[in-house]
Design brief:
Number of domains of chain A: 2
Distance between the termini of chain B: 58 Å
Strand content of chain B: under 5%
Largest interface: A-B, 33 and 37 residues
Low-confidence stretches of chain A: none
Order of helices and strands of chain B: HHHH
Number of helices of chain B: 4
Largest sheet of chain A: 3 strands, antiparallel
Number of helices of chain A: 5
Strand order of the largest sheet of chain A: 1-3-2
Strand content of chain A: 5-15%
Order of helices and strands of chain A: HHHEHEEH
Helix content of chain A: 55-70%
Oligomer: heterodimer
Helix content of chain B: 55-70%
Shape of chain B: elongated
Radius of gyration of chain A: 20 Å
Structural class of chain B: mainly alpha
Number of strands of chain B: 0
Chain lengths: ~160, ~120
């Protein structure tokens, strides 16, 4: 009856957040969630294999802290004004993760964080081209991406 | 639609003001960067200040204002934050890939060429 229980649960929560909690809205939200789950099932997307879902809060925590830190760093960089030329640049990062959902999450994380942008993933080479605003040390950037996000994502989507 | 101004205790008013100014400031800095940075790929980074920190701080101010003002927890702003942070990277990637495609077609030397291990 519920092909995507997590999605349906999120939809009910969203419905209640937007409309305020009442018994009527709970019932209506549950109905919407069930039908939306069926609609999604008829599209037959790949089902993400969340092996260690309890690590997701940890990932969100890390991303939250990183977003704040890079907001400060990039603001400072922009306010300082005088920048060395060529301090920004492209970076080709080899990746090990292959799961489409994990890749999508990583792309969103890297792009949403100021200072780095995900440009092009090549599934043949398993590399991604990213652009970094303050590219001082390439090795450090690659290691940060691989250790902070990729390792954790690989654990979650094993 | 007119909302009446809510009565807030001093600490909440100060917190709301701080987060509003912080969010506006981050968005302003991002916009200035957008104006001043020299290349397209660098300019791509500046507005993310507004869509991450800027949106976050302003939504936090909104959560505090309405939660304290109405006396019940108002957190549907989290949904706005969630959807903004999921959808903006899609647009950024589209723009970036279009620029990349154009630069490669024009054989711009500043842009890394596509490495093809296999013949196309």
């Amino acid at each position: 009856m519920l092909p995507y229980p997590i999605l349906s649960l999120c939809l009910v929560l969203m419905w209640l957040l937007l409309n305020g909690f009442s018994l009527g809205h709970l019932l209506l939200g549950v109905l919407v969630a069930i039908f939306a789950g069926w609609a999604l099932a008829s599209l037959r997307p790949d089902k993400p294999k969340l092996k260690k879902w309890y690590l997701l809060p940890k990932l969100f925590g890390i991303v939250f802290v990183d977003v704040i830190r890079s907001n400060i760093a990039v603001s400072w960089l922009l306010l300082k004004g005088k920048r060395r030329k060529d301090s920004s640049g492209f970076l080709l990062v080899p990746l090990e993760i292959e799961d489409p959902t994990a890749l999508a999450i990583m792309a969103v994380i890297l792009t949403a964080t100021p200072g780095s942008a995900w440009l092009e993933y090549d599934s043949g080479d398993k590399t991604v081209l990213i652009h970094v605003l303050d590219l001082i040390d390439k090795e450090t950037w690659i290691n940060t991406i691989k250790q902070r996000y990729e390792a954790l994502l690989m654990e979650i989507f094993a | 639609m007119t909302e009446q101004v809510l009565d807030l205790p001093l600490w909440a008013a100060v917190a709301v003001a701080i987060f509003l100014i912080l969010g506006a400031l981050l968005t302003l800095i991002g916009t200035i960067g957008f104006l001043r940075l020299p290349t397209f790929y660098e300019r791509l980074h500046a507005p993310t200040l507004g869509t991450s920190g800027g949106v976050g701080a302003i939504l936090l101010a909104s959560i505090i204002y309405f939660s304290v003002g109405t006396g019940r927890l108002v957190i549907h702003e989290i949904l706005i934050g969630l959807f903004v942070s999921i959808t903006t990277p899609v647009t950024f990637m589209l723009l970036a890939r279009a620029a990349l495609h154009r630069d490669r077609a024009e054989r711009n030397p500043d842009v890394p060429a596509k490495v093809h291990r296999k013949p196309v």
